[in-house]
Amino acid sequence: MNAILKRWFCIAGLIVASVPPVAATAACPPLLEHTFTGLQDGQPLPLCQYAGKVILVVNTASYCGFTSQYDGLEKLYARLKDKGLVVLGFPSNDFGEQEPGNNKEIADFCRLTYGVEFPMVGKTVVKGKLANPFYLRLAEITGSRPKWNFHKYLINRDATQVVAYTSLTKPDDPDLLKKIDEFLR
């Protein structure tokens, strides 16, 4: 077990993990020290820009039975972004090859079909040993690895707690909304 992981426990199928608090002088929590390419504009997307926000991380796919969750994710983002919630999409072709397009095709699909405005990174790997380092860290902290598209990780404002939710958890799930509200306080 990694030394940074202080404790984890399972609550009603959710994996809740705590990591040591970040020193107040640190501008960016270590968990967020990753930079990706933005899906919509191809520009660097440093996760440190979301320090102090509640972040809902979701691995996405355009041709999945859960793809309609884009609609709920966008509504959630639009409703709570001014309170400090960021929905962050990670398109991946890891499960059932359900994200075969390139970044432009994915961005166009998300914008035209679901009106997605929440930030998304360029297509990436989220499972196995080749997963991007951010996803490897989220899985390590929570003990929960994505088993399919639309797996979710909710990160609190100071990035000291991460809660994992399966693909079956919809964006309007009462337990998810309750935890988001708790983290936004």
Could you please describe the fold and organization of this structure?
The strands form two sheets. The protein has a six-stranded mixed β-sheet with strand order 1-2-8-7-5-6, with helices on both faces. The chain has a two-stranded antiparallel ribbon with strand order 3-4. It is globular and about 35 Å long. It has a single domain, classed as Glutaredoxin (3-Layer(aba) Sandwich). The longest helix has 12 residues. The protein has 185 residues and is of the alpha+beta class.
- In total, the number of domains comes to 1
CATH architecture: 3-Layer(aba) Sandwich
Write the CATH homologous superfamily. Glutaredoxin
State the secondary-structure class: alpha+beta
Q: How many individual β-strands?
A: 8
Largest sheet: 6 strands, mixed
Give the helix proportion (percent range). Answer: 10-25%
Q: In what range is the share of β-strand residues? A: 15-25%
Work out the helix count.
Answer: 4
Strand order of the largest sheet: 1-2-8-7-5-6
Contiguous low-pLDDT stretches (5 residues minimum) are: 1-25
Q: In one word, what is the shape?
A: globular
Listing every helix as H and every strand as E from the N terminus to the C terminus, the arrangement reads: EEEEEHEHHEEH
Radius of gyration: 15 Å
Q: Please tell me the overall pLDDT.
A: 90
InterPro entries: Glutathione_peroxidase, GPX_AS, Thioredoxin-like_sf, Thioredoxin_domain
Keywords: Oxidoreductase, Peroxidase, Signal
Family: Belongs to the glutathione peroxidase family.
Domain Thioredoxin: 13-185
